Amino acid sequence: MNEVGQNKFGITLVYLFLIIVTLVSIFPFYWMFVVGSNDTSAINQFPPAVIPGNSFIENMQKVFERIDFIGVMMNSLIISGSVTLSVLFFSSLAGYAFSKLTFKGRDAAFVFVIATMMIPPQLGLIPNFMLISWLGWIDSFSAVIVPSMVSAFGVFWMRQYIGSSVPYELIEAARVDGCSHFRIFWSIVLPIIRPALATLGIFTFMMTWNDFLWPLVVLKDKSVHTIQIALRTLNDVYSTDYSMILAGTFMATVPILIVFLIFNKQFIAGLTEGATKN
């Protein structure tokens, strides 16, 4: 009985810890909504406001007056969705090649891909801008989508997952049946690696949605601004309406939460796949 009681006490501590971590993680998002639904003065008052107010719609109306909120949200959705789909396809295809195909220079090429992860993206800012300008892609979605169509992390992630989840025997059996490499990849490998695709897709969508520096450099026209650039224009020179900005920021965060909720189960399965194998 004593051992049973100790186990219950340990489980209680674990759940208590998880509840605390969850509340701490959710609080910034909740605070963003609290400030966005009150006046800016609520930030400076003591004690600060901790209960949502009734000014959220008013603050959002200010956002709609200052920027084309729906338009920039659609721009971000198009860019983030296109980048995510391309990264999932090309990264999984490259991961399959590096993991299951044998060709000359495979390991050296994979090491080169991994080495690119060590280079800060800021170092490629000027060369990439010169190339995009030469191609005439300034102020177009291609300037943001094409350079991000495949990622080194995505290739590494898919290569590791495919190597551990897809047995060689299954691929050899498909080859005996006359399947081509792409047919094997499309019909056999992709259904198996759905958890890894969901995990990579969430990370890619979130990083692309929150990207600020590169879109700021290549997207000058307001008609092609992303949501992050548009929110930056809400700052005034002499004063800042934090309630208006955080109301817009709160609404700009909602698509990321929706994507996470849709792929939640697959995301968790992808992260815990290695821990559940014997």
UniProtKB/TrEMBL annotation:
Keywords: Cell membrane, Membrane, Transmembrane, Transmembrane helix, Transport. The keyword Mitochondrion does not apply. It is a multi-pass membrane protein. CDD domains: TM_PBP2 (cd06261). The chain crosses the membrane at residues 12-33, 77-98, 110-135, 141-158, 184-209, 242-263. It holds the Pfam family BPD_transp_1. Residues 73-263 form the ABC transmembrane type-1 domain. It is found in: Cell membrane. Its main location: membrane. It comes from the Bacteria. The keyword Transport applies. Belongs to the binding-protein-dependent transport system permease family. This is Carbohydrate ABC transporter permease. It comes from Jeotgalibacillus terrae.
